[in-house]
Automatic annotation (TrEMBL):
Residues 134-298 form the YprB ribonuclease H-like domain. InterPro entries: RNaseH-like_sf (IPR012337), RNaseH_sf (IPR036397), YprB_RNase_H-like_dom (IPR038720). It comes from Pelotomaculum isophthalicicum JI. GO terms for molecular function: nucleic acid binding. Pfam families: RNase_H_2. Signal peptide: none annotated. This is Ribonuclease H-like domain-containing protein.
Length: 307
């Protein structure tokens, strides 16, 4: 066995639970049993406004840059000539055929194809309802999917309220049940919203599902808010961490928040001792991340001038 393989085995070896300690039932948590095992479900709700684009095809029709070959300069020239939307280009000697293709994509709601042509996220979200969106945030024991995750936080919006479901593994053996339960929730939504989730959260869940031979995949339309934060605020804020946006946009400062780098070791200690007090700050941190994403959704994805 190579040195790399030996190190991987040590890294993946679960921490030993101290003798005589049973899995704890967390305050306000419910133990759920499934064919994949047990896990803890924590549910909460709170009032909150959620700003979302109205369903309106015209938003996409006015984006002339969806046609390959039309950039900012050509778009401005066409607008001066009276071509204000893609429909107007149906009579253009050069762009008519391309316009037909784009209109077909818009009418058939080909979200992925339109995104590849440069459609903005806020434009594409007009295809969906607020109830189609699921915000996700995970907590893990490392930076690579070779290491277990233990918490999948989910937030969705219904009739003026934010609902949060936290799927929590009390020990390493409950991870499979958490991943399977999250997958069932994902099926009820069309859009996944995250903060660095395209590069981290979603690939991590997929990787852990493969580890457990579940082989899940997620064809959802994804909105990664970190990408938009960097585009809109990268030159004006010191950094684009979620907590930085909270302070500067939401005017909110977290108190006694556990630093992210302490979360893996905190969970390892919890898994050994089953002390609810150890994991409570991590659960709070996860809830705050989800709520901040929902409250920052419009100013970050649409842009700072969206109010």
């Amino acid at each position: 066995m190579s040195l790399f393989e030996r190190l991987k085995n040590v890294k993946n070896q679960p921490a030993r639970v101290e003798s005589g300690i049973s899995p704890v039932i967390l305050p306000k948590g419910q133990e759920i049993s499934s064919k994949f095992g047990k896990y803890i479900l924590l549910e909460s709700e709170m009032p909150g406004n959620f700003y979302f684009p109205n369903f309106d095809y015209s938003v996409l029709h006015t984006n002339l840059r969806l046609i390959r070959g039309i950039g900012p300069v050509t778009e401005e020239k066409l607008r001066r000539q009276g071509y204000t939307c893609v429909l107007d280009l149906l009579n253009h000697p050069r762009w008519s055929e391309h316009a037909v293709n784009v209109i077909d994509l818009i009418q058939s709601q080909q979200v992925n194809e339109l995104q590849m042509l440069g459609a903005r996220s806020w434009e594409l979200l007009s295809y969906f309802e607020p109830e189609d969106i699921l915000f996700i945030d995970i907590e893990t024991t490392g930076l690579w999917a070779s290491q277990p995750l233990f918490l999948i936080g989910l937030l969705y919006y219904r009739q003026g309220k934010f609902f949060i479901n936290q799927l929590f593994a009390r020990n390493y053996s409950e991870e499979k049940a958490v991943i399977a339960a999250a997958n069932e929730v994902f099926r009820n939504f069309k859009v996944l919203v995250s903060y660095n989730g395209k590069r981290f959260d979603v690939p991590y869940i997929i990787g852990r599902s493969i580890e457990h031979r579940l082989f899940y995949s997620y064809p959802h339309y994804q909105v990664d808010m970190l990408f938009h934060a960097r585009r809109h605020f990268g030159g004006t804020l010191p950094d684009c961490r979620l907590v930085t946006l909270e302070i500067n946009i939401l005017k909110f400062q977290r108190e006694d928040d556990i630093p992210g780098y302490l979360i893996p070791e905190t969970y390892h200690r919890f898994a050994r001792k089953q002390d609810a007090g150890l994991i409570s700050p991590v659960l709070k941190h996860n809830r705050l991340d989800l709520l901040s994403m929902a409250r920052l959704f419009k100013p970050v994805v649409h842009g700072p001038d969206s109010d």
